[in-house]
């Protein structure tokens, strides 16, 4: 894979995105307004944070299906630590994020120490973490957070939604790490050829452990933003978000077999999906119809790249 | 590595001369299956000791009949996983097929059409999935994740999650008995035995193991891998369709939504029954036993008064423990 093929995929995506924006703004005059676009950015953040971490995980040839459950568990714990245990809210949120990060670390341990395939390991913890969220919450939601907490999910900084800044910073930092650091190169090396990476003296297990921990951390931070945005915690929060994140990553050009992918691609994939979702809902299609669309987009995106790959570079 | 370049003496030649004992062969071929069976027996004894009502006829019927559809679906899933693939859309597929089945039954179509038309639909949908996996080389996890959201989203946007009621009594075959035994139980046993024999003794069955165990070797022996993968997905759709008949006819109503986490339960039944997620090994006897084990665990937790809210956490923990134990066992034997 040369640099040229990277650029090609992302240029292709960018053109598709511009095209989608153009069609959607022509369809509805409510679409291409600053207020609507910023609001879409707000809605995109939780999936975005998870998808950025997922880019690394998938680039190693792995997958993390448990992120939605980690999100649910962290959200529930934030509420329970604060309301039921009387911990001050900032400390409660930090403690909950710590547990979510630990959940990701446990995924990493199961995958690296016990050599359980990532798909099965995170499918099992998907059930476990969601079960824990249900058990801890006892089906009760926690509401009534102090006003300052809502700044994170509903407020603005310098005219831009607070969480969009977080997403932006996360994207830039992740893009630099993946493209320019030893850690990023190791990620690609594991995805291309894990055995060769190990024989080259790269820390395969350590890197994977760190990446799954990061994935848990991203899901946990997304959880706190989610709670702040919707003002409540429920144990079913974030279910299915892993699908949105994986779709964005794969649409962004990251190979599901690993070894290839960029953060920029993921962010473009995210924007494209969010624009389509928003455009469809403005056109009167209900939420469930957009789930269907994501599935179709996912399959078509991979199909297109599979056909390209066979006829082109190889 | 360890055996580099040195002429190694032949390892224990006498094993090829004398056949190992029946018990040892049983352990070698069905080790995981026996462990699962043992777990079921232990669980039954332990829970019955705490609460004798556990072994009442009513509860046994609900454990076996109420979950037979999971075992039937797990047969197809086991075959898919044996070829080294996976299907995460099966829960959504069963939800869609059940809705089609119920709609046909209520609309006055002959009962057998309502039962078997969805089976054909399931085979067609999975045939398409198989083609995308085999000929377009898209990983099955991606195709079926996409199929999952298409089926789930499509189902809810078409039906709005309404319930189908007023089903004709003759349609409800899962509530009927055959020779004094509940139909789902008979179906589960018959299908498992037939599928197990077929997988073990037919050329087609053996070729599925070859496809999953070592695709390159399979190609070299002349097995058409692509056609086998399409076939195995169609079979998976077939078993999902049969599972749907049992699932859709067990209550007086059909809730036209996707049963939550059904795909997870079915995949885990196959994996815990001894099917290696890496492909190439496992049996459908194991997947059926594991499905029974899950049903027993679910029922047992209620009988020993575990709060319903913790049920999924405990099941999740048990699943994880079994996966880890399985992985440790595999590493020791390899």
UniProtKB/TrEMBL annotation, chain A:
The lineage of its organism: Bacteria, Pseudomonadati, Pseudomonadota, Alphaproteobacteria, Hyphomicrobiales. This is Autoinducer 2 import system permease protein LsrD. The chain crosses the membrane at residues 49-82, 89-110, 116-133, 164-183, 209-227, 248-277, 289-308. Keywords: Cell inner membrane, Cell membrane, Membrane, Transmembrane, Transmembrane helix, Transport. The keyword Transmembrane helix applies. It is a multi-pass membrane protein. The complex is composed of two ATP-binding proteins (LsrA), two transmembrane proteins (LsrC and LsrD) and a solute-binding protein (LsrB). The keyword 4Fe-4S does not apply. It is found in: Cell membrane. It holds the Pfam family BPD_transp_2. CDD domains: TM_PBP1_transp_AraH_like. PANTHER family: ABC TRANSPORTER PERMEASE PROTEIN YPHD-RELATED-RELATED, AUTOINDUCER 2 IMPORT SYSTEM PERMEASE PROTEIN LSRD. Part of the ABC transporter complex LsrABCD involved in autoinducer 2 (AI-2) import. Probably responsible for the translocation of the substrate across the membrane. It comes from the Bacteria. It comes from Ollibium composti.
């Amino acid at each position: 894979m040369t640099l040229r093929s990277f650029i090609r995929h992302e240029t292709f995506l960018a053109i598709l995105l511009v095209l989608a924006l153009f069609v959607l703004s022509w369809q509805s005059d409510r679409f291409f307004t600053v207020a609507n676009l910023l609001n879409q950015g707000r809605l995109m953040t939780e999936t975005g944070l998870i998808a950025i971490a997922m880019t690394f995980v998938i680039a190693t040839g792995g997958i993390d299906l448990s992120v939605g459950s980690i999100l649910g568990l962290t959200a529930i714990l934030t509420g329970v630590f604060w309301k039921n245990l009387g911990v001050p809210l900032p400390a409660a949120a930090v403690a909950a994020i710590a547990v979510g990060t630990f959940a990701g670390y446990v995924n990493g341990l199961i995958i690296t120490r016990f050599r359980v395939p990532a798909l099965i390991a995170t499918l099992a913890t998907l059930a476990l973490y969601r079960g824990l969220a249900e058990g801890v919450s006892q089906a009760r939601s926690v509401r009534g957070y102090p006003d300052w907490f809502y700044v994170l999910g509903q407020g603005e900084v310098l005219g831009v939604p607070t969480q969009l800044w977080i997403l932006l910073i996360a994207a830039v930092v992740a893009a630099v790490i993946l493209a320019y650091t030893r850690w990023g190169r190791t990620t690609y090396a594991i995805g291309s050829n894990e055995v060769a990476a190990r024989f080259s003296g790269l820390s395969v297990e350590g890197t994977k452990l760190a990446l799954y921990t990061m994935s848990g951390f991203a899901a946990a931070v997304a959880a706190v933003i989610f709670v702040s945005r919707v003002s409540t915690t429920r144990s079913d929060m974030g279910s299915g978000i892993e699908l949105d994140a994986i779709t964005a990553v794969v649409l962004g050009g990251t190979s599901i077999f690993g070894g290839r992918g960029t953060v920029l691609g993921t962010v473009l994939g995210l924007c494209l999906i969010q624009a389509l979702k928003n455009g469809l809902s403005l056109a009167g299609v209900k939420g469930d119809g957009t789930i269907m669309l994501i599935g179709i987009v996912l399959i078509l995106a991979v199909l297109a790249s599979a056909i390209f790959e066979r006829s082109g570079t190889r | 590595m360890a055996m580099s370049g040195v002429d190694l003496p032949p390892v224990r030649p006498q094993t090829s001369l004398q056949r190992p004992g029946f018990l040892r062969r049983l352990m070698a071929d069905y080790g995981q299956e026996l462990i699962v069976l043992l777990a079921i027996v232990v669980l039954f004894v332990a829970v019955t000791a705490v609460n004798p009502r556990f072994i009442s006829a009513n509860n046994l019927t609900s454990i076996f009949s109420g979950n037979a559809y999971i075992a039937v679906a797990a047969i197809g899933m086991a075959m898919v996983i044996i070829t080294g693939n996976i299907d995460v859309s099966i829960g959504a597929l069963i939800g869609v097929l059940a809705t089609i089945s119920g709609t046909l039954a209520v609309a006055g179509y002959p009962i057998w059409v309502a039962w078997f038309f969805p089976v054909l639909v399931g085979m067609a949908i999975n045939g398409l999935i198989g083609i995308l996996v085999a000929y377009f080389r898209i990983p099955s996890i991606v195709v079926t994740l996409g199929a999952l959201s298409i089926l789930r989203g499509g189902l809810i946007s078409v039906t709005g999650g309404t319930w189908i009621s007023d089903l004709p009594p003759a349609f409800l075959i899962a509530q009927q008995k055959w020779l004094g035994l509940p139909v789902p139980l008979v179906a589960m046993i018959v299908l498992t035995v037939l599928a197990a024999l077929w997988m073990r003794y037919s050329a087609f069955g053996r070729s599925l193991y070859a496809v999953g165990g070592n695709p390159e070797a399979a190609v070299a022996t002349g097995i058409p891998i692509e056609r086998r993968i399409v076939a195995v997905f169609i079979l998976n759709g077939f078993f999902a369709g049969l599972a749907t008949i049992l699932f859709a006819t067990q209550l007086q109503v059909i809730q036209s939504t996707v049963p939550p986490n059904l795909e997870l339960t079915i995949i885990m039944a196959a994996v815990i029954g001894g099917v290696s997620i890496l492909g190439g090994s496992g049996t459908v006897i194991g997947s059926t036993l594991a499905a029974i084990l899950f049903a027993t665990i679910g029922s047992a937790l209620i009988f020993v008064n575990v709060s319903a809210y913790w049920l999924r956490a405990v099941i999740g923990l048990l699943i994880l423990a079994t996966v880890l134990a399985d992985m440790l066992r595999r590493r020791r034997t390899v």
